[in-house]
Amino acid sequence: LQFGGLAIINYGQKVKSEDLPQTVLNLDYKGRDLKSDWRTEAEARINKYRKSEIRVTVSDEQDRPVPDAEINVEMKRHTFRFGGCVNAKWLLDDSDEQKVKLREKFLQLYNYAVFENDMKWGPWSGNVPWAADKKDILKAVDFLNEHKVGVRGHALLRPRWTSTPGKIEDNKEYYREHPDELKELILEHIEDEVKAVVGKMDAWDVINENGDYYNQITELLGGNKGLVEFFEKATDIDPEGRMIINENKILTNIPANNRSFYEETIATLLEEGAPLQGIGFQGHFGLETLTPPVEIYSIVDRFSKFNLPIEITEYDIGLGEDYGEKEEKVQADYTRDLFTILFSHPSVIGITNWGFWEERIWKKSGAYYRKDWTPKPNGKVYEELVLDKWWTSAEGKTNSDGEYNIDGFKGDYELTATKNGQKKTNNFSTNR
User: Fold this and answer.
1) Residue-wise DSSP of 322-347
2) How many Cα atoms are found within 13 Å in the side-chain-facing hemisphere of 279?
3) What is the average pLDDT value for the chain, to the nearest integer?
4) d(CA 253, CA 363)
5) Residue 59 CA to chain centroid, in angstroms?
6) CA pair distance 67, 199, nearest whole angstrom
7) What is the DSSP string of 223-280?
């Protein structure tokens, strides 16, 4: 028995944690200054990639131009996926005013949705009492479709024993010895869930958090190559749904991140012919893990080489238990800057908030709205960006050639032209 590098160190008198210098919490981050150079570059990219020229021509029945027609151009919906997670039970529940308020607020804020837990394998199997049952999930999907809210299925497989139905978790030792039977159960689950909502989903998180739990289930199934069959199965059933992979610890500034492993996983899936159609980055931040905006852009660039759409699938900033105005200000500033830098990257197609109201969110401190629905600083930032700064609403008159031109953010629009008491309304989209 040998000992090497042995030392006795006197750390002095024991001190309380609150007396230590504040080196863990990051109450600032590089690039926060409003005069930072990256902001000018980001605004230029936003104007280039997120806007389209809107050219309106008004003519009469003889196809002659109509000058001085009053034009109103009103945006109705973003092309960019500004999303939120929601619980299917709450979305449909009219039993009290708070749940009705949540539904109304959700539809005001978001054009994209994901169910927090309801469509994961365990809850979908029906053995989780707090989750919505399949009937409620299907109703919620239909409700969102009716309101033109895209839905991403989350998630077909999280390769962690505790994320499987109880009958599998309880017999995990058996399935470790019989991985082929486990794979068949996964394929049966994928078929059951995808068929239930086929044609109603924008996308599916086929695999979620593979980097964190690779050694639990993925390795048993042949490693990352063994995941290809799951993408193929889901695509065969729902060829219109985008099949994506989702991963944790990609954007957060922590030493033990999953970036290299995720890069290798995506490369393997594509090399093996998996019908992978999108890359998801989770973004669960704490004040100690705020990645500077320029570095965020670099991370997205790193994965852009795969030429696949990139989504930030789960965004929030947790502040812990004891926080105040200073921490909330950092949270708001970082929300502003993260959304700005991501909205400016041409590969990014969406950002989904992982909850927005204090009474219905996994981390209360990460919410945009307090219990009484007053917006926190980060909620004000979100509304200012998504519903104002990046929203197009314009009025004017046609020129002598009957034309009216503006640059507008890509999305769905309603156009109204009025002249001499006659009004004409038309709907159009600028999605290219």
Assistant:
1) S--HHHHHHHHHHHHHHHHHHHT-TT
2) 26
3) 92
4) 19
5) 42
6) 45
7) GGGGGHHHHHHHHHH-TTSEEEEEESSSSS--SS--HHHHHHHHHHHHHTT----EEE
CA separation, residue 235 to residues 158, 198, 225 (Å): 18, 10, 17
Beta-strand relationship, 70-78 and 411-419: antiparallel
Look up the pTM and report it. Answer: 0.91
Residue 118: CB atoms within 10 A of its CB come to 26
Contacts of 48 (CB under 8 A, 6+ apart): none
Closest to 147 measured CA to CA, from 204, 198, 200: 200
H helix intervals, 50-150: 88-92, 97-109, 121-124, 134-146
- Structural tokens at position 368: 């945009």
For the chain, the residue count is: 432
Q: Report the alpha-carbon distance of residue 345 to residue 333 in Å, rounded.
A: 19
In contact, 362 and 323? CB cutoff 8 Å: no
Cα separation, 259 vs 31, in Å, equals 22
Spell out the residues 6+ positions from residue 88 whose beta carbon is closer than 8 angstroms to its own.
115, 118, 132, 136, 137, 139, 140
Q: How far apart are CA 31 and CA 52, in angstroms?
A: 29
Structure token pair of residue 338 = 């993260």
* Alpha-carbon gap, residue 42 to 273, rounded angstroms: 35
CA 280 to CA 310: how far, in whole Å?
6
64-93 pLDDT, tens digit each: 999 999 999 999 999 999 999 999 988 999
User: Looking at 1-149, which runs of residues are DSSP E strands?
Assistant: 51-57, 70-78, 81-86, 112-115
pLDDT band at 2 (very low <50, low <70, confident <90, very high): very low
Q: Please report the pLDDT score of residue 21 as a whole number.
A: 37
> Radius of gyration of the chain from Cα atoms?
25
Peptide bond into 196 cis (omega under 30): no
User: What distances in angstroms separate CA 422 from CA 22, 70, 191, 419, 427, one per listed residue?
Assistant: 66, 10, 54, 5, 17
C-alpha 128/C-alpha 386 separation (Å) is 35
By three-state DSSP, how is residue 190 classified? helix
How far from each other are the two terminal CA atoms of the chain, in whole angstroms?
69
Q: Are 338 and 344 in contact (CB under 8 A)?
A: no
3-state secondary structure of 216: coil
